[in-house]
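Crash report, auto-generated. Payload:
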Amino acid sequence: MRNSISPDHAASLVPDGAVVMIGGFMGVGTPRRIIDALVARGARGLTVIANDTAWPGLGIGKLITAGCVSHAIVSHIGTNPETQARMIAGEIKVELVPQGTLAERIRAAGAGLGGVLTPTGLGTMAAQGKQTVRIGSRDYLLETALGADVALVAARSADYLGNLVYSLTARNFNPLMAMAASCVVAEPNEVVPTGVLPPDSIHTPGVLVDYLIERWQIR
Amino acid sequence: MDPRELIARRVALELHDNTLVNLGIGLPTMVTQFVPPGLRIYFQSENGIIGFGERPPEGMEDVHLTDAGGAFVSAKPGAVAFDSAMSFALIRGGHVDLTVLGGLQVDRRGRLANWIIPDKLVPGMGGAMDLVTGARRVIVAMNHTQKGEPKIVEELTLPATSDRRVTLIVTEMAVIEPNADGLVLRELAPGVTVDAVIAATRAELTIAPQLTSMRLQA
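Recovered output after restart:
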């Protein structure tokens, strides 16, 4: 049995200065209620690991606008001019990582690996300061594992044990992040009785999930 | 014909039956409109789906189903959804037969730059570096010039997306194939002369002995 907590409680699990992974791809599959609570709490100095910073007013974009983020490790910021403006103003440090490399670095952290070897980024700015390793006749970049203090993930369904099922393209980085942080908070659209989700269809085992966000208030 | 449509119609001829294809945002996405009849193409979007389809009817969109540009899409029967690690394993692992991407510059060695203009535009590379590195074939679909400035250059002045040589460059003027010796001009768009292409290109071009006019998907 997992504890269900309020979005405000979840926000209190993300202290100022924390390294936090947030699922989603341009806001799709991002836990919106937790983000609203982080903005309401006035979180500061967060290092956010995510695919992107969405748009102003959407998903992670709300955290950028509210000044919660001091460091973003993402694959692109092209859809959020505010992230770019704050980066140029020196308010946010942005570390750009190729999307596939970001996924594998997160996966590595959750899988107990020190990192991965990838050809992506060879001969580009993404290779700066990184070790090149030759395997056979090919070169690879050594990309180190990337873990976090807290992972905030969004799911379509959860059961009482915290087993999670994601929906279509809202899955993206969520299952990887649910493996890669010390504390995992999941925001499901619905919570169903244990046993309703078929074992073969579960994407994230509930034992990895520390907290579920409670259902919406119906009145 | 609209230059973007011309480019899309030419790129569409590079689609092969029963293949996995990833199209970049913008112009490359137009290629879906010109898929030759009878071909079964599996379109991948790097946010985690193979087999997405056209935008649903107004009001029927699923907020959990978009393409990599964030636009609402549908899922065709047989579509498959997966996480980002799987999505990029497909891309990096050589399982994607073809990617079509926009470009800022391509140089004589066939290297593409398309993710950053330092100090001006810093969108980030997203999935572009993985796609150019890992897809079996990489086609750059772009305008030949930008505000009169050639985009095909001797040496990149913008940061490279990959050191891998792209397969083909398709512009509204020409089809150019980079190979080990440089850039080969293979096809000319309707009404375009060799001299016009050379004038709009800032890199040495070899003229293919069998230079033809640009073939276009109807």
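Post-recovery validation: Chain A has six helices and twelve strands.
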